[in-house]
Amino acid sequence: MELQNIPSMTKLLDSSEFSDFDINQEILKKIINNTLDSVRKTVYSDKNNNLTDKDIKSQIVFEIKKIFDQEPKIVINGTGVILHTNIGRAPISKESSEQIQSLLSNYSDLELDIKSKNRKSRISKSDKLLSLIIGSESSAIFNNNAMALVIALASLGKNKEVLVSRSESVEIGGGFRIPEIIKMSGQKLIDIGTTNKTYLSDYEENISEKTVAILKVHKSNYRIEGFTEEVDIKKLSNLATKHNISLIHDLGSGNFMDTTKYGLPFEPSIMDSINDGSHMTLFSGDKLLGGPQCGIIVGNKESIEKINKNPLARAARIDKLNLYILNNSLTSYVSKSKTEKIPSWSLIKLDSEEIKKRANLILEKLPKEFFRLTQCKSTIGGGTFPETYIDSYGIKMTEKSLTKKLESYLLNMKLPILGKIENDNLVIDLRTIFNEYDNYLIESLNNFFNK
């Protein structure tokens, strides 16, 4: 195609290919214009291009469909990573999602006390639930845990000093690092101790008139082993109280459970942190808690009052959708069958032999020459339990020459199926696939070989 052959805006607007879409004329013009710009660049750069009018119209249709496609979309998780950061971490229960759908299409008592008709705190329910479940005095809830840490530090004044062990001055994901977060809060980081050993004396020797806090960061997604030493929360709490400074404990993962009962290594809980004397404990809502993305701070009333008076508290408060999800997630911890009501914990506690039976039932309906049973190692994910693996089972596609084609086929389906590549084989770990998608998985895999 040459420049003079590129179809005009008027001609394209009259095309029947776009008439089935519920899209207004102004938006359609913008999409056509952007597409034509792209076509002109192609024609300029490649004189031997094979572009046709049909190609241009197909590209416009593709761009229109992208607008109307749901995004984020449902992804079927066959990776075995339970809290997979790239696909939304903790899924919420169907019961919660149904209640939320009803609430979102109506008005609600988000910040209204129905009896008195007075304004109330939007997190009053969350605050009560957290007090019941973990014994916290008070709480503040923000849009994510990194912002919660910024606000907690900023509430302590300006240009003050915060003590952090060198072994805990970490990157928390997405390129964000503890030193940068402390700087953003308006405070100054004071590195103490060494990478492998930090003693109580290291903290005490570095406390000055400018010191406002000790920050203890839980090493949830990495390990330092061997010749090591660190100071526990109880000792740090006593030291902080003695010098009238704050102890902030960033636990990150938000664990409310005794993890050893689920075959996992010990992971300190929020209750442990509170009971050991942390003044402010911070954690995420969408990791081990099993709720939405948010950053929760629990602590003594004096500390939380300072946080809530900070102007940033308003700017970064939790929105109503995530608040509804959080309240439903926290309510699950009040019930007798809490692990059944929290999907991520239901997946963690699944018995591997039951997964094996399910895998064999699926394999009976797939071509035997291409698929077989395979043992898997599931992981928790979400920056928790490094080097911890859970026995699981899945299905393996044995024809390595078809691995990339099958992977691409599954990822481009209406409901994408995400697996993992092991030794050039596509493996689908069934621990993280909800039973309701088994028939869809069977149909999708069979269609690949029948197309």
Question: What order do the helices and strands come in, and which of them pair?
Answer:
Layout: H1 9-13, H2 25-45, H3 53-68, E1 76-77, E2 81-83, H4 94-104, H5 124-134, E3 138-142, H6 145-154, E4 161-165, E5 171-173, E6 176-177, H7 178-184, E7 188-192, H8 200-205, E8 211-217, H9 233-242, E9 246-252, H10 270-275, E10 280-284, E11 295-299, H11 301-309, H12 311-315, H13 320-332, H14 338-341, H15 343-348, H16 352-363, E12 371-381, E13 390-397, H17 403-411, E14 417-418, E15 420-422, E16 425-429, H18 438-450
In short:
By secondary structure, this protein is an alpha/beta fold. It has helices at 9-13, 25-45, 53-68, 94-104, 124-134, 145-154, 178-184, 200-205, 233-242, 270-275, 301-309, 311-315, 320-332, 338-341, 343-348, 352-363, 403-411, 438-450, and strands spanning 76-77, 81-83, 138-142, 161-165, 171-173, 176-177, 188-192, 211-217, 246-252, 280-284, 295-299, 371-381, 390-397, 417-418, 420-422, 425-429.
Descriptive account of the structure:
The protein is α/β, with parallel strands linked by helices. It folds into 3 domains: about 5-70, no CATH class; about 75-85 and about 345-450, Aspartate Aminotransferase, domain 1, CATH 3.90.1150.180; about 95-340, Type I PLP-dependent aspartate aminotransferase-like (Major domain) (Aspartate Aminotransferase, domain 2, 3-Layer(aba) Sandwich), CATH 3.40.640.10. About 40% of the residues lie in helices and about 15% in strands. The protein has helices spanning about 10-15, 25-45, 55-70, 95-105, 125-135, 145-155, 180-185, 200-205, 235-240, 270-275, 300-310, 310-315, 320-330, 340, 345-350, 350-365, 405-410, 440-450, and strands spanning about 75, 80-85, 140, 160-165, 170-175, 175, 190, 210-215, 245-250, 280-285, 295-300, 370-380, 390-395, 415-420, 420, 425-430. The chain has a 7-stranded mixed β-sheet, sandwiched between helices. Strand 8, helix 9 and strand 9 form a beta-alpha-beta unit. The radius of gyration is 27 Å and the shape is globular. The two termini are about 35 Å apart. The relative contact order is 0.13. The model has no long low-confidence stretch (mean pLDDT about 95).
